[in-house]
Each structure stands twice: as C-alpha cells, then as structure tokens.
Design brief:
Elements: H1 2-9, H2 13-33, H3 39-75, H4 78-85, H5 87-116, H6 119-144, H7 151-181, H8 192-213, H9 220-248, H10 254-295
C-alpha cells in the first residue's frame, strides 16, 4: 500500500508529462467553451488537480538536479557561457526579453479594458507602456556605451528613470482608486489562476533578489533596470490580488475588498516612491560630485 501511494504521487516522468498536457488542454477547453456546472468541468478539474500535485512533487524531488543539469548544458554553449559570465550581455538580454513581456502586458490590459469596459485597465496599460519606454531607453544606452564607461551619463539616466517612476505612481494611485470602487478584476479560467499566482510570486521574488544581488556592480544603469523590474513585479501582485478576490471573494463584503486593495496599493506606492526618492537623491549627489571633479 505504501508503494502504491508513492507511485501515485511520484509516477514516471511520461505520466507527469501526459497529465500536465491534459491539464493545459482542459484549461484551454474550459476557457474557450465554458463548462461551468457541467460534468465535464469536474472531470477536467480533477485531472488538473492531480496534474498539479504530481508536477509539484516531481519538481520538488528532481527540480534542483534538472536546474543544475540544464544550467551546465547552457553554460557549455557559446551564448549561454556569455550570458552567465558577461554582465553587459546578460543585461541586454534581460532588458529586451522584459521589453517583450511588458509589451504583452500593455496589449493584455488594453484588451481587458475594452472587454470589461473598465478604465483602470487602460491606466494599467499606460503604466506598463511607460515602463516599456524606460526599458527601451536603457537598452539603447547599453547598446551605445559599456557599463561604467560614462558614469555621468549613467547617473543622469538613473535620475531620469527615478523621476518617471515617481510620476507614473500617480497613475497607479488612480488604478487603485478605480479598483476599490469598481467591483471587477482579472478573470482566469479554472486553475490558470494558480499558474498566474506562481508566476507573480516568482516575478516579485527574482526582482527582490536582483535588487540585492546586482548592487555589488555599483552600476546606476543596472540599478535602474532592476528598480523598473521591481515596479512591474509589484503591480503584477496587485492585479493578482484583484483576480483572487474575483475568484474566491464572491462572499466577501465589498468594504473588506476595498481595504485589501487599498492596503496593497498603498504599500506598493510607498515602496516605489521610497526607491525612486533614494535614486534621485543618490544620483543628484553623484552627478554634482562628478561635475566638481570634471571642473577641477
């Protein structure tokens, strides 16, 4: 019996792959056709639940080994080795990949704005569009200059990014106010909400780790890139909260929902303003110092 339960939780990889594929297909089917209160919905939900369980168990058991082997394989390739050893190349790659993701967020929020006829989605689109423009400007700079080659230029761009982060925080305030008084949020079909939750927590975790990890390079451009990433990650947590409230908070009083949204929005605004204010003060100090040195 013990062996049976072990094999049930830790089946062979091909079983995990099959059930994961069935889970994805089922969620797409539910999203497209909708099977609420239909027997098929409960079948898909049961398969998806089991798929998530065995996939999680598989990753817990084998995740570290898989990650290590994958990293070694990538490290042995030309561009993989460069990605792990060349900070400038890695910065450019992550910048351009973030540009693609941010552009997708802009498009998604515009679509949601029209579908749900809700203005705060359009404000979120403006927020992500501004972050996209900032990342594009930083990408252009990293393509033109090596990191550390023009410190005065780096500090000026870092200050500009911090100022823009402060300004777009006003649009985030507007988003929070609209969320509080429009009882709507993102809607994810079936267990897709758990996937989005995992992504959001991964996003915020890596953003915080990067802020700490890359401080050792003492590059204003890198710090700006990571601050923009953190701002985007924090907003993804806010949108996740509205999705969770829409999915699981149907019986929650509207006043309690408003308290949750207001508290999260205030916390995000405080963090963004704190980081951007520090960047402005620090950048201004370093710019004045470099100007004095150049004048001498």
């Amino acid at each position: 019996m013990k062996k049976f339960f072990y094999n049930l939780i830790f089946p062979p990889f091909f079983v995990v792959a099959i059930f994961t594929a069935l889970c994805v297909a089922g969620m797409i089917l539910v999203s497209v056709n909708g099977f609420a209160f239909h027997p098929m919905y409960y079948v898909i939900y049961a398969i998806s639940f089991y798929a998530v369980c065995i996939l999680t168990a598989f990753l817990i058991k084998n995740g570290a080994t898989i990650f290590k082997n994958a990293k070694n394989r990538i490290y042995k390739t030309k561009y993989g080795n460069r990605f792990f050893t060349d900070i400038e190349f890695k910065t450019r790659v992550t910048l351009y990949s973030s540009l693609v993701i941010n552009t997708g967020n802009v498009a998604l929020n515009i679509v949601y704005g029209f579908v749900f006829n809700t203005r705060w989605f359009f404000l979120l689109a403006v927020y992500y569009a501004t972050l996209t423009v900032m990342r594009f400007a930083l990408a252009l700079y990293t393509g033109a200059y090596s990191l550390g080659a023009n410190m005065l230029g780096e500090w000026k761009r870092a200050r500009a990014c911090a100022a823009v982060l402060t300004l777009i925080n006003l649009s985030l305030t507007g988003v929070v106010l609209m969320m509080m008084y429009q009882n709507r949020g993102f809607v994810y079909a079936g267990m897709l909400i758990y996937v989005m939750a995992a992504y959001s927590f991964y996003h915020i975790t890596t953003a915080i780790i990067d802020i700490i990890k890359y401080r050792k390079y003492k590059s204003p451009i890198i710090n700006s890139i990571k601050s923009v990433k953190l701002a985007a990650a924090l907003v993804s947590m806010l949108t996740l909260e509205t999705a969770m409230l829409a999915a699981f908070g149907t019986d929650m009083p509207i006043e309690e929902k408003r308290i949750f949204i207001a508290a999260t929005g205030a916390g995000i605004s405080a963090i963004v303003i704190g980081i951007s204010s520090y960047m402005i003060v620090k950048s201004t100090h370093e710019i004045n110092k470099l100007k004095e040195i150049n004048n001498d």
